[in-house]
Input
Amino acid sequence: MSKVFVDLGVSVDGFVAGPNARPGNPLGDGGPLIHRWMYQTAGFVRNLGLKGKGRTGPDNDIVEAVTARCGSFVMGRRMFDEGEVGWPENAPFHGPVYVLTNDAREPWVRPGGTTFYFVTDGLASTLSQAREAAGEKDVRIAGGADVVRQCLAAGVVDELHLHIAPLLLGKGVKLFDGPLPERSELEVAQVVDSPGVTHVSYRIVK
Amino acid sequence: MSKVFVDLGVSVDGFVAGPNARPGNPLGDGGPLIHRWMYQTAGFVRNLGLKGKGRTGPDNDIVEAVTARCGSFVMGRRMFDEGEVGWPENAPFHGPVYVLTNDAREPWVRPGGTTFYFVTDGLASTLSQAREAAGEKDVRIAGGADVVRQCLAAGVVDELHLHIAPLLLGKGVKLFDGPLPERSELEVAQVVDSPGVTHVSYRIVK
Output
């Protein structure tokens, strides 16, 4: 059965984006520092359609493994709004993306296999559609932080993967902020120690 | 030259204690879950004067290395108040502890080598006294979270060691809360992957 997983970059102090995040500045001030480890990987370069080949190695292996397992994506409205003006035309998902929103809109088909579907009847419906679209593959909760917290609170997340960047950002958007889900036990599934990032994957005990 | 370091257990969602922390419940509700990995280690058992020998292995190696390097400690008033009624008479520091407080008090000498000194003229003075007492050894900022943040903001911390427990606590006292220090770059110094905890040590780039 397919899994639902969260895969996010965070700073040591828990930020997923810097301050002043908005369309045109999607990761906020300093936010790209959280994802530095990823920008040179071959998988990222290919997903974004950038020039060059990028680097292979343990960081890239992680990017490739995540890319390979994604059958569909769930995304919050704010992340979509920021990405809509920032992603290349050939958007980096290359699969169906279900955007949780209050505003109905026709599906938006992009070159390269990404289609955004706008779901207005809540998280359960969004997840249900994403699961069906994923088939044997997995559903990635792409973000932002609000949607991740909603999914954790709803108990639908099977795995939480954090890429912890060696950085105190000080200001911005926190992953774990405001009212949080109830206490949950996790199991450490994998730790990969790179010079520029610490990858830690957890299984959520249900 | 001696180093100033922070060494703290945190949950994945960034808590160093659960809710309702107070004297008599020093780690708050659920807070001991953050430190489960440590309670069975030989170093912890010895430092607390508990019965039995405890376990050796990678987790204990980390406890022993921290114990061996501590020449003195800096502590916030709240942590002291909570610990005063909770620590055994033979307090677990076995060295000089400088408590940052507004209330003058005579030094409090405990059996086993721990003496608490109460410093009322600010953080810089507290650190200066702790550094002098440490000699060739290092100064550990013992906590709580407020004092750690003050020390990070003052730029006096050389190393940050986090022991990340596989747990979402949901409520309690966060390490990185409220106004945080300015952006800082870190370097990953060491990652130790245990089943019950992920130990990540950073050097703070100055």
Notes: Chain A touches chain B through 35 residues (CB under 8 Å). The two ends of chain A are 16 Å apart (CA to CA).
